[in-house]
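Worked example 3 (structure in, sequence out).
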């Protein structure tokens, strides 16, 4: 007889079935009786009252850029907004004085992102 043909020994009893979840039955009493409380809804993000979005080509070597003006945010906050908008639009951009400059013509896609960030009125020019 070869290795494959070996028969199990009849003298060794079969091991009992091991249930890895058996210990969880003991923890059942510690669980809360009712459903979990509903999570508190976060308020809509508060943003600037308005923003003006326009496309510009002059003085930029013929390249189209989208300019976001009149946000009225401090410089540090403008950097955060720029990073979020660049990620949402998949484009490059920079902060020039108190305006955001995004590469390409983003006038159609930008208002929805601004409203999601809390801008109450977006004017596209």
């Amino acid at each position: 007889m070869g290795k494959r043909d070996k028969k199990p020994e009849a003298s060794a009893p079969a091991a009992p079935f091991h249930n890895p979840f058996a210990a969880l039955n003991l923890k059942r009493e510690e669980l809360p009786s009712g459903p979990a409380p509903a999570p508190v809804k976060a308020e809509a993000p508060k943003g600037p009252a308005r923003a003006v979005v326009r496309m510009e080509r002059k003085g930029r070597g013929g390249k189209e850029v989208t300019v976001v003006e009149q946000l009225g945010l401090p410089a540090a906050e403008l950097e955060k907004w720029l990073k979020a908008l660049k990620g949402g639009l998949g484009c490059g951009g920079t902060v020039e004085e108190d305006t955001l400059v995004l590469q390409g013509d983003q006038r159609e896609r930008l208002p929805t992102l601004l409203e999601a960030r809390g801008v109450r009125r977006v004017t596209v020019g």
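Notes: Helices lie at 24-27, 75-89, 110-116. The longest helix spans residues 75-89.
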